[in-house]
Structures are given as structure tokens and as C-alpha cells.
Amino acid sequence: MSKRMWPSHFIEKKARREKLVLLTAYDYLTAQILDEAHIDALLVGDSLANVFEGKSTTLGVTIDQIIYHTQAVARGAHRAMIIADMPFLSYHLSLEETKRNAGRCLQAGAHAVKLEIGPSDIATVKALVEMGIPVMGHLGFTPQSVNQLGGYKVQGKNEDSAQEILRLAQACQSAGCFSVVLEMVPAQLAKTVSELLTIPTIGIGAGHHCDGQILVTPDLLGMSDGPAKKFVKAYANLRSELLSAVQLYKNEVEMGQFPSEGHAF
């Protein structure tokens, strides 16, 4: 069995200038496949709202759902580090509840949690790290703040917002984060942040200067419907292949070709 990836390995890989590779996972079978491919870390993302439940935002995801999906992913991955997203309202009401929810994620099989970071969340990060829970920060476009941000928009395009992202990135590092996700920020800003920090940056829609990359797995596999986001590259067209397989099965059943004698007892 291969060696498990841990938060300390993230920092070591950055020091060696080795790129980190992350993907999302929400189920046992997908986690198995991604683990077999030696993906460094699997994020049990609140993006499950979009690709698993068909919702337009992530705001409806609950901590119980994250726990459920983390347990499934943990059963499938034995090498990759598992990071559980802290969904909306799971770390906003009180520090006591935040600690309890983050602890439940680790009990479910996660090795770290991810928080979307605003200025008021730095103290929360520090408190979680002090109790032994590794934390990944999430900066730039933060989906849980979609209503405040006015939609899915690139962040850090003007000087003030760029400086705020820089400040928050440094604050995340000082508070003990082992890495930060940079989502939908200009590539030059991501380069600046990546060079400034000693912890790795993980980009999604942030250019190639980040220390690693993450994509939503169904997007990578070409399973999602509608036009792909600008920063997504589909490495397969599984939606079409799955549709063809299901249609072939339907045709064979209707024609009496399945099951054949070889599929019967």
C-alpha cells in the first residue's frame, strides 16, 4: 500500500517545486479510481450540491451531508489525503459548534477541513489548528458568498480586492493553514500569492503559477451538462459514453437480446 499523503507533504512538495494534484470526490467508487491514479488529495466538496444534487448554489449543503460523503470517500481512498469542505453555517454560528463540526469531519475519515475565508474567519482557523485539525483556506471566489459577490465573478481584478486577497493569504499562513485554494483570480495575482507564501497554493481558474491544481471531477470527465467553465478542461466525454451504454442496454432488453443464456443461472 502506498504512503498516505499528509498536510506536511503539501509543504514539502512546494519546497521541491513539485506540483500538487487534487480532485473532488463524493463516493466510494470514484475515490477508489482517483486513489489508484495517485491523486494527492481528494476534496469532499460542497460542490456536491451542483454535481450530485443538481442545485444552482452550494448554500443548501449541510454538515451531515458532508459527513456522509466523507465516510464513503474514506472507504475508497487509502493513499490520498481527504479534505472535507465545511459547508455554509457549519462554522459561522459559534466557535464551539465549529470545532464540533470540524471534529466530526475527522471522525468521518477526513484528514483536514477546508474553510472559505473572510477576515473574521482567521481566528477560527487558528482555533482549529490549535486543537489539531489541519485547515485549508479558500480565497478569491468563494461560492458560499455568491449572493454577496453578485454571482460567479472573477475576484481580485482591482487593486483593493487584490490586496485583500494577499492580506488574507498571509493571514491564513500565519494562522496555521497548510495550503490555500485560489479560485477565479487573475493569473498574475495567483503568481504573486504563490511566490509570497511558503505554504502551497491550489488553483482553480487561477492560472498555471499555483503550486497545484484542483478541478471538479465530473467536469474533468465530461459528465456535466451545458457549456464548460472557462477554466475547465474535459479529459473525457463520459456523458456521451454513458448515454450510449444505457441506450444499448435498453435496446437489447427490448429486443430480447439481454439477458442471454450466458447471463442466466
Please sum up the structure shown.
With 265 residues, the protein is of the alpha/beta class.
- Overall structural class, as computed from helix and strand content, comes to alpha/beta
Specify the CATH class of the largest domain: Alpha Beta
Principal-axes shape call: globular
Give the beta-strand count.
8
pLDDT averaged residue by residue: 96
Whole-number count of domains: 2
Approximate strand percentage: 5-15%
Biggest sheet record: 8 strands, parallel, barrel
Radius of gyration, taken over Cα atoms and rounded to an integer in Å: 20 Å
Low-pLDDT runs of 5+ residues are none
CATH architecture grouping of the largest domain = Alpha-Beta Barrel
N→C terminal distance: 37 Å
Give, in spatial order, the strands making up the sheet with the most strands. Answer: 1-2-3-4-5-6-7-8
CATH topology of the largest domain: TIM Barrel
Topology:
Elements lengths: L6 H9 L4 E5 L3 H9 L4 E4 L3 H4 L11 H14 L4 E5 L9 H13 L4 E5 L5 H9 L4 E6 L5 H4 L9 H17 L3 E5 L3 H10 L4 E4 L7 E4 L1 H4 L17 H17 L11
Parallel strand pairs: 1-2, 1-8, 2-3, 3-4, 4-5, 5-6, 6-7, 7-8
Helix pairs in contact: 2-4, 6-8, 8-9
Sum up the structure in keywords.
265 residues, alpha/beta, TIM Barrel, 2 domains, 11 helices, 42% helix
